[in-house]
Amino acid sequence: MQKLKIDLKALNNVKVIYPILVILLLASISFYMLKEKEKRFRVLVQKQLSQTIEEKKKVENKLVGALEAKEGAEVELSAEKEKSSTLKKELKEKEQEIVLTIKKLEEEITARRKAEAQLMITMKGKELLETRLKKLEKFSKPIQLEKIVVKPQTGMVGKVIMVNKEYAFVVINLGNKDNLQLQEVLSVYRNDEFIGKVQIEKIEENMAAAVILPQWKDIEFMENDEVKKI
Fold it and tell me: What integer is the mean pLDDT of 41-49?
């Protein structure tokens, strides 16, 4: 009877230990699985970290490349600005040269126009003198002239005796004898109709050269047009 009791007690001990062993085994398995899971997680994290580091390096390389490109672009921009400044300076100098050249040409044209006007006046004066000499040669006897009565006039009247269309000036038969003044403006008429104005530029004793004023340069002036000082 005593022996039977001992066996029952041992049996009871086995029944108690077995669940404990099972629990310990399950705990060991769970711990192992947890460790494996943690290990896999650590490997995954390290892999992701490595990828992140690689991506960071790529971004840094791109950033360095972008900065280098920016520096290169800034250098090129600076060079272009300097080149543009140089071109602007050269353009300004060329414009000044053109202005001076145009001014010089205008002065030369004015001088040439005055010279041609002087030449025309001289030639016309020569023609008038030759005509008068021929008339004087025809008369050997003195001629008694009738008494001439000069009526006072309110204005000076003359005629256009030559026209230069190229340089826009005329020669008139009024001069120093008519008290004509430089820069004086005269009106021009044809058949008592006003056609334009001229300004005295060169005066001789019996004739003068006058420039056609800009407003009337398109008008066709003709010989024998009347010139009046109003």
Answer: 86
